[in-house]
Design a protein that fits this description.
Number of helices: 5
CATH superfamily: Cytochrome c-like domain
CATH class: Mainly Alpha
CATH architecture: Orthogonal Bundle
Largest sheet: none
Strand content: under 5%
CATH topology: Cytochrome Bc1 Complex, Chain D, domain 2
Shape: globular
Radius of gyration: 17 Å
Structural class: mainly alpha
Distance between the termini: 39 Å
Number of domains: 1
Number of strands: 0
Helix content: 55-70%
């Protein structure tokens, strides 16, 4: 009985942690369907955003590389699956998303 209660508490804790992580995803990312291919901390179709932040940490030109890639799409950096273009994404919104991603630790 005690192990069942401990398991239930652990499961509830994991659900709360997952909800907190989901809440951290910017509304702009949800609105533009970034969440269909990306998550903050795990690979989905594309890389985890924390992995992107790690890769470009210390690269002063990262934002200048990533904003056009978000808008025009591209491939070859994270594997065979190319990132689709998001032509409706404004440069300002892409910049805000890149700032968020690069700010992850």
């Amino acid at each position: 009985m005690k192990s069942i209660i401990v398991s239930m508490v652990a499961a509830a804790g994991l659900m709360v942690a997952g909800s907190a992580l989901a809440a951290d995803m910017p509304d702009l990312a949800k609105k533009n369907n970034c969440t269909a291919c990306h998550a903050i901390d795990k690979k989905v179709v594309g890389p985890a955003w924390k992995a992107v932040a790690d890769k470009y940490r210390g690269d002063a030109g990262a934002k200048a590389k990533l904003v056009p890639k978000m808008i025009k799409g591209g491939g070859g950096v994270w594997g065979a699956m190319p990132m689709p273009a998001s032509p409706k994404l404004s440069e300002a919104d892409a910049g805000a998303l890149v700032d968020f991603v690069l700010g992850l630790k």
